[in-house]
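Late entry, written up from scratch paper. The run itself happened at the end of the previous shift, but nothing got recorded in the book at the time, so transcribing now.
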Amino acid sequence: MTFGGASAGAIIASFWPGLPDWVLPLSVAAIGALAYGVHEALFVPWTKNKVEKELIDTEARRGMYFQQYVQRCSTTLNSLLDDALRIYSEVYDSPYHEEKFNDPEERRKVVTDTLSGIENLSPFVCKHLTKHFLEGKITRDLWAICESGREPKYCEHWKDGASP
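Output as recorded:
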C-alpha cells in the first residue's frame, strides 16, 4: 500500500466526526494484511508456476535445437568427407585408403567417431523427451527425470522402459 492510499484514507476518516484514532491505523493494517495474503496465496504461486514452465520450455527447446544441430553437423561432415574423397581421387587418380573409405558405412563411422564427444554433451538422455514435451506431459516434478533420463522407472509416462 502506498502512502498516497493511506493518506487518502486519513482524509476520508477525518470527515467522520467521533471516529476513534485507532480505527484508521487498524483498518489500514487489516487491508494491507488482506492484500498481502491474497498476493501470497494467489499471485505468487501462479507466477512461480508460469516462470517454471517457461524455464522448462526454454530448456527443452534448447535441447531439441542442440540435437538438431548435432544431426546437421553429422550430415555436413558426411558431405564434406564425400567431397574430399572425390576430389582426392580426381587429383591423384586413385582412391584414398580404398579399403577403408570405399564402404559408405565406414565413412559414416568416421564421422560418428568424430562427433561422439559432441553427442555425449547432449543435455538430454531420455529418448522420449521430445515426444512427451510436444504432448505436454512434462511437468516440473518430472523434469529432472526427463532431463537426466537415468531413472525412467519413476516416470509415469514410461511403461517397462517404453513410451506409452
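Residues 41-123 form one domain.
(Scratch paper discarded after transcription.)
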